[in-house]
Amino acid sequence: MLLASLFIGIIVCYGLPIAGLVLLMRRRKGAGKAFLWGAAAFVVSQLLIRIPILQLVLPNFGWFAVMQRFPWMYGLFLGLTAGLAEETGRWIAAGCFLKGKDTLAHGLAFGLGHGGIEAMLLVGPNMIAGAVMVLSGQAALFPAEWAGVLVGGAERIFAMAFHVGASLLVLYGVRQGKAFRYWALAVALHTVLDAAVVILPQAFGAGIAGIELWAAAVGGAALVLGILCYRRKGGVL
After folding, report:
1. pLDDT recorded at residue 236
2. pTM flag (> 0.90)
3. Do residues 113 and 43 touch, judged by C-beta distance below 8 A?
4. CA–CA distance, 195 with 81 (Å, rounded to integer)
5. In Å, how far are 86, 169, 170, 180 from 184, measured between CA atoms?
6. What is the dihedral of CA 154, 159, 163, 166, to 10 degrees?
């Protein structure tokens, strides 16, 4: 069962974004470019800027250590900084490098690139390592059970849904000349999504199920909002 769950996780982390990219590239020229810029927006904003600051710079300040004692403050801080970093990265990529490539298909590819590369780099390698352990008879060394692996795969689906929705909002805002308004909406959604990872368990005692339900709700809401923005204006795929 563990091996099957790991293969499902690998399919979610790698197969889902790649399959989506292939389908979108067949539909719309420039979808591949949008996917790559979405991936670049995540790598630069999170891996090269925000995470190094959180891990290497802020621990040197006393106020950062004190803030971690207060779940609401710390959760909102992490959520807001994630939103500011990633949504600003999306805004820059959409406004500077995707001019003329702002259809629904481009937005979907843009979001899949952002959410897909996050899954491929941060979650997928652990899934692959776990599968190798199981196949080599070392399943006891993998630090998770099959149910936890499936939850991790579901979390990636919810996260990708959010990233696609947020990307659609930002790209639509740039397209309509209302970039700041839609960027702010994406930042707000990103904040409430990520802040809950700290706030729900520490302030309300919520377990994994509660956190994932919240992720599914916010991710689904962002995706629906993004699609509706395009559809209400007669956007084409």
Report:
1. 45
2. yes
3. no
4. 10
5. 12, 10, 9, 6
6. 110
Q: Output the DSSP codes for the chain.
A: -HHHHHHHHHIIIIIHHHHHHHHHHHHSTTHHHHHHHHHHHHIIIIIIIIHHIIIIIGGGSHHHHHHTT-HHHHHHHHHHHHHHHHHHHHHHHHHHH-TT--SHHHHHHHHHHHHHHHIIIIIHHHHHHHHHHHHTT-GGGSSS-HHHHHHHHHHHHHHHHHHHHHHHHHHHHHHHT-HHHHHHHHHHHHHHHHHHHHHHHHHH---HHHHHHHHHHHHHHHHHHHHHHHHHTT---
For the segment 138-156, the average pLDDT, to the nearest whole number, is: 90
Q: Check whether 237 has a pLDDT greater than 70.
A: no
